[in-house]
LLM class F420-dependent oxidoreductase
Amino acid sequence: MLKIGAVMFFTTYSLQPAELGPMLEERGFESLWVPEHTHIPSSRKTQYPAGGALIRPYYDIMDPFLALNTAATATTNLKIGTGIALITQRDPIVTAKMISTIDQLSQGRFIFGVGNGWNQDEVENHGTDFASRHKLARERIEAMKAIWTQEEPEYHGEFVNFDKMQQWPKPRQKPHPPIIVGGAFPYAARRAIRYGDGWIPRADRLEKEGVGVLISKFRQMATESGRDPASLPITIFRVPEEFDRLKYCEEIGIDRVVFSLPAETKDKVMPIVDRWAELKHRLGG
Protein backbone atom coordinates (compact mmCIF):
# COMPACT_ATOMS: atom_id res chain seq x y z
CA MET A 1 0.00 0.00 0.00
CA LEU A 2 1.24 3.49 -0.87
CA LYS A 3 2.40 5.36 2.24
CA ILE A 4 1.59 9.07 2.42
CA GLY A 5 3.42 11.71 4.44
CA ALA A 6 3.57 15.48 4.69
CA VAL A 7 6.49 17.93 4.63
CA MET A 8 6.35 21.37 6.26
CA PHE A 9 8.60 24.33 7.01
CA PHE A 10 7.83 25.00 10.69
CA THR A 11 8.27 28.64 11.68
CA THR A 12 7.23 30.87 14.58
CA TYR A 13 4.14 31.93 12.61
CA SER A 14 3.05 28.50 11.30
CA LEU A 15 1.05 25.66 12.76
CA GLN A 16 3.36 23.94 15.26
CA PRO A 17 4.61 20.31 15.14
CA ALA A 18 2.94 19.27 18.42
CA GLU A 19 -0.40 20.19 16.84
CA LEU A 20 0.16 18.99 13.28
CA GLY A 21 1.63 15.62 14.28
CA PRO A 22 -1.51 14.30 16.01
CA MET A 23 -3.70 15.64 13.19
CA LEU A 24 -1.72 13.64 10.65
CA GLU A 25 -1.69 10.54 12.83
CA GLU A 26 -5.44 10.68 13.46
CA ARG A 27 -6.08 10.76 9.72
CA GLY A 28 -3.85 7.74 9.11
CA PHE A 29 -0.89 9.45 7.47
CA GLU A 30 2.40 7.61 7.79
CA SER A 31 4.99 10.33 8.32
CA LEU A 32 5.95 13.96 8.91
CA TRP A 33 9.06 15.47 7.31
CA VAL A 34 10.96 18.69 7.97
CA PRO A 35 13.60 20.31 5.70
CA GLU A 36 16.79 21.93 6.97
CA HIS A 37 18.51 25.26 6.40
CA THR A 38 20.79 26.50 9.15
CA HIS A 39 20.70 30.02 7.70
CA ILE A 40 20.34 31.84 4.38
CA PRO A 41 23.30 34.00 3.34
CA SER A 42 22.52 37.44 1.99
CA SER A 43 24.74 36.74 -1.02
CA ARG A 44 23.57 34.35 -3.72
CA LYS A 45 25.96 32.33 -5.89
CA THR A 46 23.30 29.73 -6.63
CA GLN A 47 19.84 30.33 -8.03
CA TYR A 48 16.84 28.95 -6.17
CA PRO A 49 16.11 25.63 -7.98
CA ALA A 50 12.37 26.36 -8.13
CA GLY A 51 13.07 29.71 -9.81
CA GLY A 52 12.43 33.26 -8.70
CA ALA A 53 13.07 34.66 -5.24
CA LEU A 54 13.69 32.38 -2.28
CA ILE A 55 10.48 32.10 -0.29
CA ARG A 56 10.44 33.47 3.27
CA PRO A 57 10.11 30.12 5.15
CA TYR A 58 13.65 29.21 4.03
CA TYR A 59 14.90 32.02 6.24
CA ASP A 60 12.56 31.28 9.14
CA ILE A 61 12.55 27.47 9.37
CA MET A 62 13.10 25.88 12.77
CA ASP A 63 15.70 23.22 13.53
CA PRO A 64 14.38 19.97 12.01
CA PHE A 65 15.45 17.62 14.80
CA LEU A 66 13.85 19.68 17.54
CA ALA A 67 10.66 20.12 15.51
CA LEU A 68 10.47 16.41 14.76
CA ASN A 69 11.12 15.39 18.35
CA THR A 70 8.29 17.67 19.41
CA ALA A 71 5.97 15.96 16.92
CA ALA A 72 7.12 12.53 18.09
CA THR A 73 6.38 13.41 21.71
CA ALA A 74 2.80 14.30 20.75
CA THR A 75 2.19 11.11 18.71
CA THR A 76 2.46 7.34 19.02
CA ASN A 77 2.90 5.81 15.56
CA LEU A 78 3.68 8.69 13.20
CA LYS A 79 7.12 8.35 11.62
CA ILE A 80 9.30 11.46 11.63
CA GLY A 81 11.89 12.28 8.99
CA THR A 82 14.36 14.92 7.87
CA GLY A 83 13.43 15.96 4.38
CA ILE A 84 16.30 16.55 4.02
CA ALA A 85 19.15 17.07 6.52
CA LEU A 86 22.17 18.85 5.05
CA ILE A 87 25.03 16.48 5.84
CA THR A 88 27.62 18.85 4.35
CA GLN A 89 26.77 21.30 7.14
CA ARG A 90 26.84 18.88 10.08
CA ASP A 91 29.57 17.42 12.27
CA PRO A 92 29.16 13.61 11.98
CA ILE A 93 29.93 12.77 15.62
CA VAL A 94 27.45 15.32 16.97
CA THR A 95 24.85 14.35 14.36
CA ALA A 96 25.24 10.63 15.09
CA LYS A 97 24.49 11.30 18.76
CA MET A 98 21.48 13.44 17.88
CA ILE A 99 20.00 10.82 15.57
CA SER A 100 20.54 7.98 18.05
CA THR A 101 18.83 10.07 20.72
CA ILE A 102 15.81 11.05 18.63
CA ASP A 103 15.44 7.46 17.42
CA GLN A 104 15.42 6.23 21.01
CA LEU A 105 13.05 8.93 22.24
CA SER A 106 10.63 8.28 19.37
CA GLN A 107 10.72 4.50 19.93
CA GLY A 108 12.37 3.86 16.57
CA ARG A 109 10.27 6.12 14.35
CA PHE A 110 13.01 8.27 12.82
CA ILE A 111 13.83 8.31 9.09
CA PHE A 112 17.10 9.98 8.09
CA GLY A 113 16.55 11.82 4.83
CA VAL A 114 19.85 13.32 3.69
CA GLY A 115 21.13 15.65 0.99
CA ASN A 116 24.22 17.61 0.06
CA GLY A 117 22.81 21.07 -0.52
CA TRP A 118 22.26 23.38 -3.49
CA ASN A 119 23.01 26.76 -1.87
CA GLN A 120 26.74 27.28 -2.37
CA ASP A 121 27.00 30.24 0.01
CA GLU A 122 25.21 28.36 2.80
CA VAL A 123 27.40 25.28 2.40
CA GLU A 124 30.62 27.29 2.29
CA ASN A 125 29.74 29.22 5.45
CA HIS A 126 30.15 25.88 7.25
CA GLY A 127 33.73 25.55 6.02
CA THR A 128 32.85 23.07 3.27
CA ASP A 129 34.29 23.28 -0.22
CA PHE A 130 31.27 23.22 -2.52
CA ALA A 131 33.04 21.23 -5.24
CA SER A 132 33.98 18.35 -2.92
CA ARG A 133 30.79 18.29 -0.84
CA HIS A 134 29.54 14.99 -2.25
CA LYS A 135 32.62 13.07 -1.13
CA LEU A 136 32.49 14.82 2.25
CA ALA A 137 28.84 13.78 2.68
CA ARG A 138 29.64 10.16 1.83
CA GLU A 139 32.45 10.03 4.36
CA ARG A 140 30.29 11.58 7.06
CA ILE A 141 27.53 9.05 6.47
CA GLU A 142 30.01 6.17 6.47
CA ALA A 143 31.46 7.49 9.73
CA MET A 144 28.01 7.77 11.33
CA LYS A 145 27.20 4.21 10.30
CA ALA A 146 30.36 3.07 12.04
CA ILE A 147 29.43 4.99 15.20
CA TRP A 148 25.92 3.51 15.23
CA THR A 149 26.91 -0.10 14.60
CA GLN A 150 30.27 -0.60 16.32
CA GLU A 151 31.23 -0.72 19.99
CA GLU A 152 34.50 1.11 19.36
CA PRO A 153 34.33 2.76 15.95
CA GLU A 154 37.05 4.56 14.08
CA TYR A 155 37.08 6.21 10.67
CA HIS A 156 39.92 7.46 8.50
CA GLY A 157 39.04 9.29 5.31
CA GLU A 158 40.12 12.36 3.40
CA PHE A 159 37.68 14.66 5.21
CA VAL A 160 36.55 12.68 8.27
CA ASN A 161 39.16 11.25 10.57
CA PHE A 162 38.89 9.94 14.12
CA ASP A 163 40.57 7.17 16.11
CA LYS A 164 38.78 4.56 18.19
CA MET A 165 36.03 6.10 20.28
CA GLN A 166 32.84 5.18 22.10
CA GLN A 167 29.40 6.74 21.81
CA TRP A 168 26.01 5.80 23.22
CA PRO A 169 23.10 5.51 22.97
CA LYS A 170 23.00 3.46 19.81
CA PRO A 171 19.87 3.89 17.66
CA ARG A 172 16.80 1.86 18.53
CA GLN A 173 16.41 0.74 14.91
CA LYS A 174 18.98 -1.81 13.80
CA PRO A 175 21.46 -1.45 12.30
CA HIS A 176 20.43 2.24 12.21
CA PRO A 177 17.52 4.40 11.01
CA PRO A 178 16.97 4.18 7.25
CA ILE A 179 19.14 6.61 5.30
CA ILE A 180 17.18 7.91 2.33
CA VAL A 181 19.18 10.01 -0.11
CA GLY A 182 17.49 13.03 -1.65
CA GLY A 183 18.28 14.56 -5.02
CA ALA A 184 17.84 14.31 -8.75
CA PHE A 185 18.59 11.56 -11.25
CA PRO A 186 21.22 10.34 -12.02
CA TYR A 187 23.76 11.69 -9.51
CA ALA A 188 21.77 11.50 -6.28
CA ALA A 189 20.30 8.20 -7.46
CA ARG A 190 23.84 6.82 -7.68
CA ARG A 191 24.58 8.08 -4.17
CA ALA A 192 21.43 6.39 -2.89
CA ILE A 193 22.55 3.12 -4.41
CA ARG A 194 26.09 3.48 -3.05
CA TYR A 195 25.32 4.21 0.61
CA GLY A 196 21.57 4.66 1.07
CA ASP A 197 18.50 2.69 2.06
CA GLY A 198 16.25 4.49 -0.41
CA TRP A 199 15.97 7.46 -2.77
CA ILE A 200 14.00 10.73 -2.56
CA PRO A 201 13.39 12.41 -5.92
CA ARG A 202 11.05 15.39 -6.33
CA ALA A 203 7.91 14.96 -8.40
CA ASP A 204 8.49 18.03 -10.56
CA ARG A 205 11.94 16.84 -11.60
CA LEU A 206 10.71 13.33 -12.42
CA GLU A 207 8.03 14.77 -14.69
CA LYS A 208 10.60 16.09 -17.18
CA GLU A 209 11.46 12.60 -18.45
CA GLY A 210 8.48 10.74 -17.08
CA VAL A 211 8.08 9.26 -13.62
CA GLY A 212 7.93 5.67 -14.84
CA VAL A 213 10.95 6.09 -17.12
CA LEU A 214 13.27 7.42 -14.40
CA ILE A 215 12.04 4.96 -11.79
CA SER A 216 12.80 2.10 -14.20
CA LYS A 217 16.25 3.54 -14.89
CA PHE A 218 16.93 3.82 -11.14
CA ARG A 219 15.97 0.20 -10.53
CA GLN A 220 18.09 -0.96 -13.46
CA MET A 221 21.02 1.07 -12.14
CA ALA A 222 20.59 -0.53 -8.71
CA THR A 223 20.58 -4.04 -10.20
CA GLU A 224 23.69 -3.32 -12.28
CA SER A 225 25.43 -2.10 -9.10
CA GLY A 226 24.63 -5.29 -7.22
CA ARG A 227 21.82 -3.82 -5.12
CA ASP A 228 18.37 -5.35 -4.88
CA PRO A 229 15.94 -2.61 -6.00
CA ALA A 230 13.51 -3.85 -3.35
CA SER A 231 16.04 -2.76 -0.70
CA LEU A 232 15.93 0.80 -2.07
CA PRO A 233 12.34 2.05 -1.66
CA ILE A 234 11.46 5.28 -3.43
CA THR A 235 9.88 8.28 -1.70
CA ILE A 236 8.61 11.02 -4.04
CA PHE A 237 8.45 14.50 -2.50
CA ARG A 238 6.14 17.39 -3.34
CA VAL A 239 3.60 15.23 -5.13
CA PRO A 240 0.64 17.13 -6.63
CA GLU A 241 -2.86 16.70 -5.24
CA GLU A 242 -4.06 14.45 -8.08
CA PHE A 243 -5.66 11.04 -7.62
CA ASP A 244 -4.56 9.64 -11.00
CA ARG A 245 -0.89 10.45 -10.32
CA LEU A 246 -1.07 8.87 -6.89
CA LYS A 247 -2.68 5.76 -8.33
CA TYR A 248 0.06 5.55 -10.94
CA CYS A 249 2.74 5.85 -8.23
CA GLU A 250 1.08 2.98 -6.41
CA GLU A 251 0.92 0.87 -9.57
CA ILE A 252 4.64 1.23 -10.34
CA GLY A 253 5.64 0.31 -6.80
CA ILE A 254 6.52 3.67 -5.26
CA ASP A 255 6.86 3.17 -1.51
CA ARG A 256 5.84 6.62 -0.28
CA VAL A 257 4.66 10.01 -1.51
CA VAL A 258 5.02 13.22 0.48
CA PHE A 259 2.85 16.28 -0.06
CA SER A 260 3.76 19.85 0.85
CA LEU A 261 2.10 21.99 3.48
CA PRO A 262 2.59 25.77 3.56
CA ALA A 263 4.13 27.52 6.57
CA GLU A 264 0.73 28.81 7.57
CA THR A 265 -1.70 28.70 10.48
CA LYS A 266 -4.16 25.89 11.19
CA ASP A 267 -7.01 27.44 9.21
CA LYS A 268 -4.86 27.41 6.05
CA VAL A 269 -3.19 24.04 6.59
CA MET A 270 -6.09 21.83 7.68
CA PRO A 271 -8.16 22.07 4.46
CA ILE A 272 -5.12 20.72 2.57
CA VAL A 273 -4.64 17.91 5.10
CA ASP A 274 -8.31 16.98 4.86
CA ARG A 275 -8.24 16.92 1.04
CA TRP A 276 -5.26 14.59 1.18
CA ALA A 277 -7.04 12.42 3.73
CA GLU A 278 -9.87 12.02 1.21
CA LEU A 279 -7.38 11.11 -1.53
CA LYS A 280 -5.85 8.55 0.80
CA HIS A 281 -9.28 7.12 1.48
CA ARG A 282 -9.97 6.83 -2.26
CA LEU A 283 -6.72 4.91 -2.66
CA GLY A 284 -7.97 2.44 -0.07
CA GLY A 285 -5.73 3.56 2.79
Observations:
- The chain has eleven helices and eleven strands.
- The first helix runs from residue 17 to 26.
